[in-house]
Amino acid sequence: MVSQVEKGKTQIFKAGILNDNRRRTCVDGFSLVELVAVIFVLILMVSIVYPKIRTGGDLKTVSRQIIGTIQHTYSRAESEKQPYRLHYDLTHGEYWVSVAPTAVDNDASQDVKPDQPRLLPKGIKFAKIETMHFGVVVDGRAFTNFYPIGRVEPTVIHLRDKEHETFLLSINPLTARVTVSSDTE
Fold this sequence. Notes:
This protein is an alpha+beta fold. The protein has 2 domains: 4-55; 59-184, minor pseudopilin epsh fold (3-Layer(bab) Sandwich). It has 3 helices and 12 strands. It has a 5-stranded antiparallel beta sheet, with helices on one face. A 5-stranded antiparallel beta sheet has the order 7-6-10-11-12, with helices on one face. The mean pLDDT is 82.
């Protein structure tokens, strides 16, 4: 016969629900080995997935974020009947949206840079920006105009990662649809 003290000792190694029926006495639950195995598998999965989530620094993710910004800015300019600009700072790897003073003004010195512009992740940069007004810009700042009549300045954004893979984001001037193409240099 098993004493109450021995039953208490065996319950330390089991976690779960104690079924105490008159006919049989058993402990349903998971053993310590099973719990350790599950925790090990979870830690392994997190260690594989977390670095990709944490950095967010692949070209596809950054391209999607910029495309979302373009689509949102286009919608705002058209719905609010207000000209907007999407600014690019190639030197610091930043971009932001501002309201343009007028639709024909090409001087961005009046445009205010926000306190928290969007930063490109480490390892990704603007290689160059091609616009109708600026031509090809490889350093400094440039912007894309979004007009209230539903048009956008034709722009090609070149994004490059540390492996020198380049994504080209081409903005259609009539629909603001962005086509993405890959170019490995």
